[in-house]
Amino acid sequence: MKTLVHLSDLHFGRVDPAVADALAGLIGRLGPHVVAVSGDLTQRARRWQFREARRFLDSLPRPHVVVPGNHDIPLFNLPARFLNPLGGYRRHITDNLQPLHADAEIAVLGLNTTRPTSLKGGAVQYDDVPRMCEVLGRLGERIVKIIVGHHPFGERRDAAGSTEGAADTRAVARLAGAGADVFLTGHRHLSYTGHTAERYDISGRAAIVVEAGTATSTRMRGEANAFNLLHIDHGHVAVERFEWQPSGAVFTVADATRFERGSNGWAAVKP
Q1: What does the DSSP assignment read for 216-237?
Q2: Strand 236-245 and strand 34-38: pairing?
Q3: CA gyration radius for the chain?
Q4: What is the pLDDT of residue 168?
Q5: Looking only at Cα atoms, what is the longest distance across the chain?
Q6: What is the pLDDT of residues 189-199, one digit of tens each?
Q7: Distance (Å, rounded) from C-alpha 92 to C-alpha 243?
Q8: Mean pLDDT in the chain?
Q9: Lower CB density within 10 Å: C or N end of the chain?
Q10: Pairing outcome for strands 236-245 and 226-232
Q11: What DSSP state is assigned to residue 270?
């Protein structure tokens, strides 16, 4: 059994220090095999914010699989935004925009979904899909394969009726068909756990979808600070959502969902 901590939307520059300190202490006690961070490590991609994010990451158990988010691209420095959008991220966090951690039981693959031409949006680069499918195909059948990106991979419709991420829905179908078992994302600051057939209304092999709330930021959207802890083996995945309790200044388990592997992918197990 492997354990993976899934953090997202740290937003250093708009962090609650009490939450960040408690989170780092709890993760140290949990001792996960892997820590995955699905983007937005900073609020405005400033050097001091990246340095604070780096110090926080250095306090956590390793290995880390980290990907950037749209807030990790400069907003007001237009030359940097378009000429070197992830320069600060590469300098302080990691130069590897396609990170991979693999062992005999799990593989965690990072995916860069940021687009400097979009202020908030992002998507799977469709040219990355064949490469990811090739990597998935090289991994053993008994390895649970996890993909980490910042932006949710499926289509959603905004208030004006336009859609974002339609190409991502096709990408999800291809990646799940190639063997992806779990998709980890953030961006919305709202937690969600389900599977691809339910979340994206796509057929074929079902994979697990886990979206994390904001782990440490004061930029909440109706949900307390939260993170996910995954317990993983070949045939089972359990997702525990931890939520911040201000009254006790602690993170506690708010809910949990269990999945089992079947002939057509993954399905939730009724309690």
Answers
A1: SBS--SSS--EEEEEEE-SSEE
A2: unpaired
A3: 17
A4: 75
A5: 53
A6: 999 999 888 88
A7: 28
A8: 91
A9: C
A10: antiparallel
A11: P
Q: Are 12 and 41 in contact (CB under 8 A)?
A: yes
State the pLDDT at residue 155.
53
Q: Which token pair is 167? A: 């190409």
Q: Give pLDDT tens digits for 22-78.
A: 999 999 999 999 999 999 999 999 999 999 999 999 999 999 999 999 999 998 887
| Dihedral sign of CA atoms 22, 13, 119, 79 in order | negative
Q: What is the CATH number of domain 2-269?
A: 3.60.21.10
pTM above 0.85, yes or no: yes
List the one residue out of 86, 105, 140, 88 whose CA is nearest residue 34. Answer: 105
In order of 53, 92, 162, 222, the CA distances from 242 in angstroms are: 21, 28, 33, 15
Sheet holding 182-185, edge to edge: 100-102, 106-110, 144-148, 182-185, 208-211, 192-195
Quick check: bond before 74 cis, omega within 30? no
Dihedral, 207, 220, 225, 169 alpha carbons, nearest 10:
10
CB 138 within 8 A of CB 230: no
SS3 breakdown of the chain: % helix, strand, coil, rounded to 5?
25, 30, 45
Q: Which residue has the tokens 């420095």?
A: 77
Give the up-direction half-sphere exposure of residue 74: CA atoms within 13 A in the CB hemisphere. Answer: 17
d(CA 232, CA 249): 28
Terminus-to-terminus CA distance in the chain, angstroms? Answer: 20
- Helix H or strand E segment including 256: strand 250-262
Q: Which residues are paired to 35 by β-bridges?
A: 5, 64
Tokens encoding 164: 């974002």
| Average pLDDT over every residue of 256-266 | 95
